[in-house]
């Protein structure tokens, strides 16, 4: 057996017919932690990553202004005191480059890079009913056989570029925020068009406007955005965070950060002036905390409408031209039911003489031309086009692969009416396949790193349980999955979330079934723990027929096995 040397493992010689403990697809926050934990468990593991380096979505999203909208002290792994002690965030909201350095630092600190095959994209994962193993094939033609297949493919990893007529005729530069080049992009002297005003567009627009000769923003739906009030972190910030860290860790077990609390339905509606004062205080503080100002803000129009009025008032204060201000005010959805945006000077950017807002609701974008864009009313001359048009979110990366479970059933077929999982962790008919932050789990709601950690901890405990009892396979029971999906839909239907055409519902992708994908209910961690404590209620384990007795378990930690020979 040869072991790959160096950091990029795809040159390694294959091991004949070896069955690995696990293949982990994706080397973002979830995939890296899964590799770390599974290796520590004694499983032979290999990670497969399409990018040339670790980082997941933070590797690809390098557009100007990109930073996280979760405070950096919280947007960090919690599982390693050494990692925490060896890292110091510089700003309240970290920029992408710093986050990527952090992920790279974690990968190096725990020796994870040698486990990963970079620049390799998984194209298929097929379950072999007889051998009870997964065969994972890649675009490089190699194929790995493994007992467990861990999909850490991320919720925001497949960029969406809308099919607008004439795009291929456009003679200028075309960029997408989620596929940004590594070389600096120079907007100086250029007439730039940005399509899309979600989180990515709202972060990029102020920075592009600073250097572009002219910036035209093509806006279909205005969004609610709150000021970040980003600033350097002080010694005091770090000390306070450290002092409260254990309590914070403990709170993660019980908190429902970002989800709808159990008190939402019974909470009183605070008087308008009380709400207003609270929103003002949170607006001054900066960040997305307005979303959690009252327990019923995401369930009751009596609260949410006031929050909407408040933010619209702030937009009108910031933007000088009344028509532009009006166009920037969201009116077709409640606040927070599309992912809230957090910005630095977004609305003020529209006061610049070199920035034009085009309201596509009033004048639809008809086509691109070789020299620009044509709406129903006007032609715009452009040198560069930036798509900030988001992602085929949550399910996009999973369905981009040919995943087949028992009897060769395709995941695409199993999910033809929308994703179906149990707890967002597993899919009936797809044994030993785990989906980290899969649909039907909180996934993108709250702190995604902590959601990843929780899923990895849960699945590792499940695998330990299987090893203890010498169980071969685990998968959700169909009835438990049905019940869970009904519950996910029921919880969402009792909130204001379904009132927006958001990517949470998949409606940004033509033809994608309209299903609310994240779990927004309370007590998710508790539910998962209880299910495990009760003997994994709703999961079916099998002793298996192959009696292969934990292949890959004996391997020394730290080695990266090579692929088995064969094509995809
Ligand atoms: O994508 P989006 P994003 N013609 O889908 C518009 C995370 N994130 O990349 O609303 C014209 O939100 C579309 O218009 P509409 C975060 O979770 C986090 O900005 O569909 N316009 C919308 O304005 C976020 O939610 C951070 O009418 C078209 C925009 O494109 C998620 O990623 C930073 C169009 C897409 O907005 C996605 O954000 C960045 C068309 N044909 C991202 N098609 C932070 O942590 C689409 N649009 C801060």
Mean pLDDT across residues: 93
- Let me know the largest β-sheet: 8 strands, mixed
For the secondary structure, the number of strands is 20
CATH fourth-tier homologous superfamily of the largest domain? FAD/NAD(P)-binding domain
Tell me what portion of residues adopts beta-strand conformation. Answer: 15-25%
Q: pLDDT below 50 for ≥5 consecutive residues: which ranges?
A: 1-14, 554-568
Shape: globular
Query: What is the architecture of the largest domain at the second tier of CATH?
Result: 3-Layer(bba) Sandwich
How are the secondary structure elements laid out?
Blueprint lengths: L18 E7 L3 H12 L4 E4 L8 H4 L20 H5 L10 H14 L6 E2 L4 E7 L4 E6 L4 E9 L21 E4 L14 E5 L3 H13 L2 E6 L5 E3 L7 H9 L1 H10 L17 H14 L15 H18 L3 H7 L12 E3 L2 H4 L5 E5 L5 E5 L2 E4 L3 E3 L2 E4 L8 H4 L2 E3 L6 H4 L18 E3 L12 H21 L4 E4 L1 H16 L30 H10 L5 E4 L26
Parallel strand pairs: 1-2, 1-6, 2-3, 4-17, 6-18, 7-16, 8-9, 8-16, 9-12, 10-11
Antiparallel strand pairs: 4-5, 5-6, 13-14, 14-15, 19-20
Helix pairs in contact: 1-14, 8-9, 9-10
The chain binds 3-acetylpyridine adenine dinucleotide.
3-acetylpyridine adenine dinucleotide binds next to α5.
